Amino acid sequence: MAITATELPRGLVVDAYERAEATPRYGDPKSAWGMLNGLTEASQHAAEHADKRAAIDAKAARLMGLLKR
């Protein structure tokens, strides 16, 4: 199942949250900054190929776009 606003898989979002929570320099995982940092790291571990990582990162960028509204 995907998170509707970003189309990111729920498992990836959970992984990103846990990575942000475990890495203090990423910031609060409940903040946009912390979550985006966690998503960046999670995408690097979730996808073997650069095109898959880029697709995940593009979906994460939607989150940033939603926050600007």
How many helical elements?
3
Give a quick account of the main beta sheet: strands, pairing sense, barrel closure. Answer: 2 strands, antiparallel
Count of domain modules: 1
Globular, elongated, flat, extended or rod-shaped: what is the shape?
globular
Q: Strand sequence of the main sheet, in spatial order?
A: 1-2
First and last CA, distance? 25 Å
Low-confidence stretches: none
Order of SSEs: EEHHH
Helix-and-strand structural type: mainly alpha
- The percent range for helix content is 55-70%
Strand content: 5-15%
Let me know the average pLDDT.
Answer: 83
Instruction: Count the beta strands.
Output: 2
Roughly how many Å is the radius of gyration?
Answer: 11 Å
Written overview of the protein:
- With 69 residues, the chain is mostly helical.
- The protein is built from 3 helices and 2 strands; from the N terminus they run ββααα.
- The protein has a two-stranded antiparallel ribbon.
- A hairpin with a 4-residue loop joins β1 and β2.
- α1 packs across α2 and α2 runs antiparallel to α3.
- The longest helix has 18 residues.
- The mean pLDDT is 83.
Features:
69 residues; globular; two-stranded antiparallel ribbon; single chain; mainly alpha; 2 strands
Quick recap:
The protein has 69 residues and is mainly alpha-helical. It has helices at 10-22, 32-46, 50-67, and strands at residues 2-3, 8-9.
Chain-wise SSE layout:
Layout: E1 2-3, E2 8-9, H1 10-22, H2 32-46, H3 50-67
Antiparallel strand pairs: 1-2
Helix pairs in contact: 1-2, 2-3
